[in-house]
Amino acid sequence: MGIVEAETGNMTDFYSHDTADWRKSGRFIERLGDSIAIQLKENPEVERIGIGVPGLTSRDRTTLLEITAIPEINGTKIVPILEERLKGKKIYIDNDANAAALGEYYFGEQGVPEDYIFVTLGTGVGGAAIIDKKVFKGGGGNAMEPGHVPSKHEKVLERNIGKVELLDLATKMRSEFGGSTRLPNDGTIFTTGLVAAASDGDKLALAIFNEVGEMLGDGIVSMIRILDITTVLIGGGLSASFDYIMPAVNHRLNFWLTDYYLKTLDVKRATLGNDAGLLGAASLCF
User: Fold this and answer.
1) Helix (H) or strand (E) holding 251
2) Of 207, 206, 203, 174, which Cα lies nearest the Cα of 189?
3) Of 5, 158, 207, 221, which residue is the least packed, with the fewest Cβ within 10 Å?
4) Could you give phi then psi for residue 257, rounded to 5 degrees?
5) Strands 56-57 and 64-66, bridge-based pairing
6) Of 167, 153, 152, 145, which Cα lies nearest the Cα of 241?
7) Could you give the domains of the chain?
8) How far is 39 from 268, CA to CA, in rounded Å?
9) Helix (H), strand (E) at residue 173
10) Alpha helix (H) residue ranges in 70-162
């Protein structure tokens, strides 16, 4: 939570709270409203409030439908509740990946067109499409869930290349590898060590990222073919591996896509980093 200056993206009054405490109270939305009210008392000039939520919302962006990590708030009409509580303030909500994607247009360090695909790599695989500077909602309001498209091994994509799955893959490949590598063989591979090893040219680390890149690349091909959008931004906590997954991603893109797509193809790393959540939420207010 924080205050974002719309013109510059400058952030102040950054604040975070352990959501477990709010869940234990049995009044999650009320506690959230309390925290926002405190911020507003200290910053009365704020007119609009954007909230990125980790899950699915109604098409009219007023109601929480499926928040996997906090299921007790499913079905809550959060916008009317908070607007009643915070008189005179406008509330905007959207999926957090959608919000982060939109934030790249308004606050990103690099210019992006009005149409682009956003993929976030972290605990899972999220995504969004921005079309004409607006979040593409799809029919029911929750389009662009690339982490849940079919992938290898009869699994969806994020069950192959999410953070836990990436480390499981690394552990498996390490146990089968007979060459020289700096990666430990005791089940203690971490993402930072994996990236560090790849940066030193470790053959096994690069092979692990190559496997991840191939699966991600196939997923991106599907998105490009369906949406006819050729600018792709990759963000999220695992984007530190960007340089090591991109050779395989590019190989799959070049294998599947025709010149029509390749001539304008632009795949690059998102720029907001750890600020994507707050700046993305703020961008919903535009």
Assistant:
1) helix 242-256
2) 174
3) 5
4) -90, 150
5) antiparallel
6) 167
7) 3-101+276-283 (3.30.420.40), 112-270 (3.30.420.40)
8) 35
9) helix 163-175
10) 78-85, 96-107, 158-161
Number of CB atoms found within 10 A of residue 58's CB: 17
Q: Which runs of E-coded beta strand occur in 167-253?
A: 231-235
Contact 231, 113 (CB under 8 A): yes
Token digits for 59? 């098409």
Gap between the Cα atoms of 277 and 60, Å rounded:
21
Q: What is the pLDDT along the chain (286 residues), one digit of tens a residue?
A: 999 999 899 999 998 999 999 999 999 999 999 999 999 999 999 999 999 999 999 999 999 999 999 999 999 999 999 999 999 999 999 999 999 999 999 999 878 999 999 999 988 999 999 999 999 999 999 999 999 999 999 999 999 999 999 999 999 999 999 999 999 999 999 999 999 999 999 999 999 999 999 999 999 999 999 999 999 999 998 888 999 999 999 999 999 999 999 999 999 999 998 899 999 999 999 8
Residue 149, both tokens: 């498209």
